[in-house]
């Protein structure tokens, strides 16, 4: 731009850094930010927000916090968007204590937390298995005149489900309409998963079947959780029934769907069905992975079908070599080729 006698200004840099943020190019965003003082352009809170968001999307929580700490030196005042991005960065980085610390610092900075801030903090607690803290945050929101949304509830449901508090997870799901918050696919999937983890396959199926009643169509995540619940509960017939019903609901099974169904067949001693499922995966555009092969191999081994098991080991080895070769070729290829 200087060669064309056009001098970049704050708006130019903000637009460029925002473009890097949207493209998850956090390195370029930081380079642009570092070049601003040389161009005698002072970064604003908009500039910092875009750079912090770029770091958040790129999984760079340390850099996001560093940028936040540098803002006062640049005479930029962090706002709600700044704290939301930084809290989300901590959440994605598994730093739940730092996420909660940012939330606690907001009132001192005269910044009011929003449902986005609380949702990120609750999600951070969910990732860390801190279900009590997740519930505490949810209960504190009304006092802060912040209304929980479906993301907040989904994270809290997930947090409860992961540690065996499936009754609490279902209780939260039932309370959502009272708060005029409607569960979405993520909320239901989290609730179904909470049932899956602790052998409550009947409840998992009940939740899945109730989704259309609230005008919520199950997606592959919902089905995967329900199939896994049947797997854990030793109900291979139901697992296969759910897998086949996905097509009627216009939901495409993925590798996880087949993994759960294969595991159910393996546990139920259904080696022939396991082999049939494995062979059908490519037709469904699902590439078998190591977990899929191991489940089928285990099913054959338990049934004394050692020759078939050896054949599967050979097929798995060949498939892994093909994958490694493709990755090697892809990484060595240049854009011009």
Automatic annotation (TrEMBL):
Pfam families: PPR, PPR_3. Keywords: Repeat. InterPro entries: PPR_rpt, TPR-like_helical_dom_sf. PPR repeats lie at residues 9-43, 44-78, 79-113, 114-148, 149-183, 184-218, 219-253, 254-288. The keyword Nucleotide-binding does not apply. The keyword Cell wall biogenesis/degradation does not apply. This is Pentatricopeptide repeat-containing protein, chloroplastic. It comes from Polarella glacialis.
């Amino acid at each position: 731009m200087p060669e064309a006698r056009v001098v970049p200004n704050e708006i130019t840099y903000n637009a460029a850094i925002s473009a890097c943020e949207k493209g998850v190019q956090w390195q370029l965003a930081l380079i642009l930010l570092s070049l601003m003082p040389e161009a005698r352009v002072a970064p604003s809170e908009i500039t910092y927000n875009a750079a912090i968001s770029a770091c958040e999307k790129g999984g760079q929580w340390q850099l996001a916090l560093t940028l936040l700490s540098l803002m006062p030196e640049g005479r930029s005042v962090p706002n709600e968007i700044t704290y939301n991005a930084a809290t989300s960065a901590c959440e994605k980085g598994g730093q739940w204590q730092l996420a909660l610390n940012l939330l606690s610092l907001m009132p001192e900075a005269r910044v009011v937390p929003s449902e986005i801030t609380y949702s990120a903090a609750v999600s951070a607690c969910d990732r860390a298995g801190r279900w009590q803290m997740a519930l505490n945050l949810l209960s504190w929101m009304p006092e802060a005149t912040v209304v929980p949304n479906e993301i907040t509830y989904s994270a809290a449901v997930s947090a409860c489900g992961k540690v065996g508090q499936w009754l609490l997870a279902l209780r939260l799901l039932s309370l959502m309409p009272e708060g005029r918050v409607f569960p979405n696919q993520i909320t239901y999937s989290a609730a179904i998963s909470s049932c899956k983890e602790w052998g409550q396959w009947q409840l998992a199926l009940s939740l899945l079947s109730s989704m259309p009643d609230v005008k919520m169509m199950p997606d592959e995540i919902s089905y995967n959780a329900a199939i896994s619940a049947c797997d854990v509960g030793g109900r291979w017939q139901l697992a296969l029934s759910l897998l086949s019903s996905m097509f009627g609901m216009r939901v495409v099974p993925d590798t996880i769907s087949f993994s759960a169904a294969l595991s159910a067949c393996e546990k139920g001693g259904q080696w022939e069905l396991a082999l049939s499922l494995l062979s059908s995966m490519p037709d469904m555009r699902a590439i078998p992975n190591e977990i899929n092969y191991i489940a089928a191999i285990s099913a054959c081994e338990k049934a004394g079908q050692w020759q078939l098991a050896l054949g599967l080991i050979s097929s798995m080895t060949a498939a892994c070599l093909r994958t490694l070769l493709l990755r090697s070729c892809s990484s060595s290829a240049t854009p011009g080729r």
